[in-house]
Amino acid sequence: MDKLEIHGGIPLKGEIRIAGAKNSALPIMASTLLTTDTVKVGNLPHLYDITTMLELLGCMGVESIVGEKLGVEINSGTIRHFNAPYELVKTMRASILVLGPMLAHFGEAEVALPGGCAIGSRPVNLHLAALKKMGADITVENGYIKARTKNRLKGAHIFMDLVTVTGTENVMMAACLADGVTIIENAAREPEVVDLACCLRSMGADISGEGTDTITVRGVERLHGSEYSVMPDRIETGTYLIAVAATRGKIKVKDTRPNILEAVLSKLEEAGAHIDIGKDWIALDMKGNRPKAVSLTTAPYPAFPTDMQAQFTALNAVAEGIGMITETVFENRFMHVHEMNRMGADMKVEGNTVVVNGKEILKGAPVMATDLRASASLIIAGLMSENQTTVDRIYHIDRGYECIEEKLQLLGAKIKRLPS
Ligand code: UD1
């Protein structure tokens, strides 16, 4: 397994470009199952998860042509069977996103039931309950979700018990081809849900209310081909901003969208960052100062994102003062804390809160990544530490961050990949 070797203690400085959003690209790629026409998806990030989604579509017979410029043309007209195998679902939980569109368009879908993962149990009961309410016959047998519908799915009034991002996306995609109107209440308001709705609309769907907690979808008989460019990745953007703030540096992040990062930018300002924004860029300057500790609570958008919690925990490790970080979305998302304590951080987990007493500097150590965002936080911790850190199990990071060591090198970091 590859490792990353980091020599920390250097303030990061420079400019980087942000890639397309993974969490937007994945549902958009799954949405191509709603039409037999070709859909061209642009601004895709170079990530393992994107390759896994292409592999998943490909193993069912869907044809795709990968273009030169971060684009792919997908045509589901060639689909031969409707089975998303465990071998792929176990490597990427977002595979569940093929369930709704496949069922709505082809009347059947078999998708391996995703298991728990390092950050929590992560059930998909709400996806299944909503699709059942739309008339699907769903059973779970031998580790597989088996869904069928004889006729078109029916529009329904659906109240989501919890705010679920991929749950909202699955139901919204299925509702596009249902007979009648579907209303999704307590819907996720994440920008990636909005991006998916915009893509679906470009394919002929009739959707309104995305970005609010009530989404209305009027089903149509068919969707058509389209060309759509994925929005920038807000989590990648935030991760680089935090890495730079934590190392007391200065950065300009380009090809991003400041208006979807408000909760993160306001916490960075609280930490002492000077922030300037344009339509598609963000500049951050710590003016050489040590960050101040911040307290925050994660919750669904527009509140502070759980996918940025670990990175802020890393920043608090070297900040001035005590920061309290409360996680309300996932039950087990503090695995990075124990690794950072091995690097000399002073953190205590109390229930769903971690209390961080900032230290002037961390000391490098060998550490192990447990999930995607925890990996990013350990890299940040390594960048802030004196002497050497090696981060093991970095296959997690390659699932969600495009060329991370190259981008950090552009900012002056001493980081290199040690192949296994
Ligand atoms: C998505 C994101 C992930 C992010 C998360 C929360 C993608 C591909 N992934 O994951 O990066 O961390 O949103 O912002 O977009 N839940 C249930 N039953 C369900 C569905 C969810 O109990 O049927 C619970 C989950 O266990 C969790 C909470 O609801 O505690 C929110 O999860 P959810 O929004 O569904 O996360 P994902 O869509 O899997």
Could you give a quick summary of the protein structure above?
The protein is an alpha/beta fold. It contains 14 helices and 26 strands.
Question: Kindly, what is the distance between the CA atoms of the first and last residues, rounded to a whole number of angstroms?
Answer: 5 Å
What spatial form do the alpha-carbon principal axes imply? elongated
**What ligands are attached or bound here?**
uridine-diphosphate-N-acetylglucosamine
Which range best describes the helical content: under 10%, 10-25%, 25-40%, 40-55%, 55-70% or over 70%?
25-40%
Strand content: 25-35%
Strand order of the largest sheet: 23-25-1-26
Low-pLDDT runs of 5+ residues are none
Secondary structure elements and their pairing?
Layout: E1 3-7, E2 13-17, H1 22-31, E3 38-42, H2 48-59, E4 63-66, E5 72-75, E6 83-84, H3 86-89, H4 99-106, E7 108-112, H5 125-133, E8 137-141, E9 144-148, E10 157-159, H6 165-176, E11 181-185, H7 191-202, E12 206-208, E13 214-218, E14 226-229, H8 234-246, E15 250-254, H9 262-270, E16 274-277, E17 281-285, E18 296-297, H10 309-317, E19 322-326, H11 335-342, E20 346-350, E21 353-357, E22 362-363, E23 366-368, H12 372-384, E24 385-386, E25 388-392, H13 395-400, H14 404-410, E26 414-418
Parallel strand pairs: 2-15, 3-14, 6-7, 10-11, 18-19, 22-24, 23-25
Antiparallel strand pairs: 1-25, 1-26, 3-5, 4-5, 7-9, 8-9, 11-13, 12-13, 15-17, 16-17, 19-21, 20-21
Helix pairs in contact: 1-2, 1-7, 4-6, 5-6, 6-7, 8-10, 8-12, 10-12, 11-12
